[in-house]
Amino acid sequence: MGFMPTISRDEVAHLARLARLDLREDELDHYAEQLDIILASVARVAEVAAADVPATSHPIPLTNVMRADVARVWLTAEEALSGAPASDGRRFRVPRILDEE
Amino acid sequence: MTADAVIPFDDAIAAFDPVMGLEVHVELSTASKMFCSCPTEFGAEPNSQVCPVCLGLPGALPAVNAAAIEAAIRIGLALNCSVAEWCRFARKNYFYPDMPKNFQTSQYDEPICFDGYLDVDVPTADGIKKVRIEIERAHMEEDTGKALHVGGSTGRIHGADFSLVDYNRAGIPLIEIVTRPIEGAEQFAPEVARAYVAALREILRSLDVSDVRMEQGSLRCDVNLSLRRTPADPLGTRSETKNVNSLRSVERAVRYEIGRQAALLQAGGKVVQETRHWHEDTGVTTSGRSKEGAEDYRYFPEPDLLPIAPDPAWVEELRATLPENPAVRRARLATEWGLTDFEMDSLINAGALDLVIATVAAGGDQARARKWWTGELTRIANDRGVDVHDLGVTPEHVVRIETLISEGALNDKLARQVIEGVIAGEGDPDAVVASRGLAVVSDDGPLLAAIDEALAANPDVIEKIMGGKQQAAGVIVGAVMKATRGQADAARVRALLFDKLGVVEEA
Amino acid sequence: MQQHLTRLSAADIAAAISDGDVSATEVTRAHLDRIAEVDERVHAFLHIDDEGALATAAAVDAKRKAGEPLGPLAGVPLALKDVMTMRGIPTTCGSRILEGWRPPYDSTVVERLRAADVVILGKTNMDEFAMGSSTEHSAYGPSHNPWDLDRIPGGSGGGSAAAIAAFEAPLAIGTDTGGSIRQPAAVTGTVGVKPTYGGVSRFGLVALASSLDQAGPCARTVEDAALLHAAIAGHDPRDSTSLTDPVPAVVEAARRGDVRGLRVGLVKELSGEGYQAGVTQRFNEAVDILTELGAEVVEVSCPHFDYALAAYYLILPAEASSNLARFDGMRFGLRAGDTGELGVEEVMSLTREAGFGAEVKRRIMIGTYALSSGYYDAYYGQAQKVRTLIQRDFAAAFEQADVLISPTAPTTAFRIGEKVDDPIAMYLNDVATIPVNLAGNCAMSLPIGLAPEDGLPVGLQIMAPARADERLYNAGAALEAALRDRWGHLLIEEAPAL
Predict the structure, then answer these.
(1) What is the CB-side half-sphere exposure of residue C136 using CA atoms within 13 A?
(2) How many domains does one find in chain B?
(3) From the candidates B32, B157, B304, which should be mutated to test the interface with C, based on the most C CB atoms within 10 A?
């Protein structure tokens, strides 16, 4: 291949960490190569002169969509916990938190 | 965990200029959550107030609570903020198990309220110091769930074997109020911080938007603090002390961090940009997560929620109906009513100022109103462990009882019985008077008969009174009151007694 | 008789049930039998809910017996894309990370289908989290195109399209983020509609890209699509982006089918290079038919469409990276690596590594990158501006034309395995369908013939402005009727027997 990737393996590793993906070593290389190609292709958006163009975050421009402040019980604790990989009494059980904020 | 070195506060202040930033999170007391209809009651059974939305289940979508928007705008207006003409929610992306979607729906560069201020009276050893705290922004976001850490040798998070999560709190509306850097507080920095949070709490209470109970976490303060040698220097590296949850702790945490950072800097060290935890019991902060190589939150506009563009007419209506600023109102009433600082403080501390104001507005006398609300009614409320607002006694009830007293239809003792009846749900004061038959006996006949009876039972009293010991009349008055079950007018009984004995009552 | 029932349109099935010619239970059994017969080869379904389907059918029959009025789709079987939650029924989104998850709630679309007495047969296969154009990215194996089992049925909603094309169901629900309803419709010779953004509630639709996703109908006829569209559309307060407008009169439009005087715009940028010869040929023939029917055909230019693909492949991964963050093994679904030794961050990372397939991971990382500080403005921010320009292109084009048309997909169905490791080649399948999602307006794909070179179906895309969905059905019905006259049957009748 005649080009150097502009996204490094380290950057891929950083992205994977941010995205909580425990990528294998071979995946890091593979993705570094693929992301580079994809990003090079989508970087085309930069060719469009759009300095004075507003960004569209919502395709249909509505505003002030709100609901009334009325409380309603929907799920029971049992239903809420029904899909949990692990629970303890009425709480979700999760692995130990090492890095508490 | 090794203890950090701390130098005495006065030494620290002599060498450094502290700069603070305060971030206060307020849980709104809406009936439902920020983005779903789940109830928000405190202390419910774990995971009993959750739904697909606040659990972040696949497919669920948020819908904004209109009451939270209104509360946010009212808070902003009360803090002299500008209200955004148009703003959006944004997603703050980071993974944490108490945050169901692994992003927090918040606001980023378009807060609903911004550029405000709050004037604060800071009590110091040098007297009241007036400080203007500039508010950078007040934005809307959602609370997280609560994790309980189980196992481990120390019981602390770091050694926990696993954690148990309750998502009842997840999605409760929060307003985050962020100050601009507070400069120039110097040695009063701890007092300034405390006074600001206290004043903010008072305003929020007057707006009736939050329980503002720091001990329950409905008002939480993060303290950012940095030191620099002189005010001319650029801002130093700051620490962010999380979840300081009492006014006293705010003051102590600022004081501690000044001492800790000063010690570090004096020793030639560097302050690390990090989150620190405040420990109420030991009065120290300890290092949490380092913010160096900070999380990249990847904010972007929340596509599932539409922009909020408050109608200016609505904003003006909210502005016009804001309650009077509590500090301003306090000063005005103290003057109008001629109260001492002490009297005003006890009124505020009883949490009954609004009730007294309402009682006065309903035609009551302020002194009598204060006596009722801060005396008898507060005592009953305390005995029952309820808020004085929740007794079921209204300002109108108090005014009516006072009128009955002034008309001579009730005495103080009977009035207390009427209050009991009202609290017991027997109806308004007139209904209680009627049903309990509590009217003062105004017919002299039964009173004279009772006096005769009492004199017969206490033959020595006549002699004492005739001999000049007029205070002995109290025995007869007391006996008559007892015989009439308190429904006599004591002054009338006394007058009738002296009249009967042909003795002129001494003034 | 049973084989025959599966060949009927939804409208005819509903009429037959309503008239008492056949029971809903018979109809349901016929379709369940068909599934049992062919789905091993087609693999359209991930889950069959025999019990629930027969219970619904029995309820419809009881209603009819009791003389209660029946809705226009009562008793009609439907296949539900596995991206929609249905209480108690497995919902996997084609991903391992959701294997075995049974949602505790119904999506709004399912609620409306239940209210309409539609019989939900089961959940259909899809590319994992709707990322793909072939169903090859399903963790449960690809679906097969009933026209040629070695070929893809399109994606992401390939299972729904295949189910309809294989006569396993007359109706299906799809979702379309960049073409996931229309491209499968095109390559299977069926009809698919992406309604206006906000036209159908997204509540309970497991989000891929929130600002692009839209659920819609899949059917074999334009009228059937309209009946399903009308049943599922309409305001839902649980989806803030849901439109409050009345549902466009799609059924009436589908029954009208009159293009006389209709201005039809050919989008210059959606033709030419990259489009298979047979696709272009059939498309040009369809244009001629529209002209014969009385439409005024004009050429329009949408210059920023050339950047649509690039903008889409930034916006979609960005939103997806955030939407998919909740799949962390804490509250539902798969959890991997929880030995008791590892901390929560590691368990989350191992879970996501084990639970997500390659394409999902790829897009999550692109999205994470595009939103990162330092890159946001250049990538995500710029893509959102391009989005505005594409909306403006559409607005200008709709000044000149009432509807726009193009081929739906540049090629007919490709072979399974052909593009699976070449993301860029795969992404190009969506080049003609993506602009509509970026702009939020509506579009339909309908079959216009077989490409001479491979004998596989070709689809034509009709695009209309936001909130003008009825125009799709009007134009689509006219073209469908003309082609049916020409062929003497629907194109799908030409599909080989399975």
Answers:
(1) 20
(2) 3
(3) B304
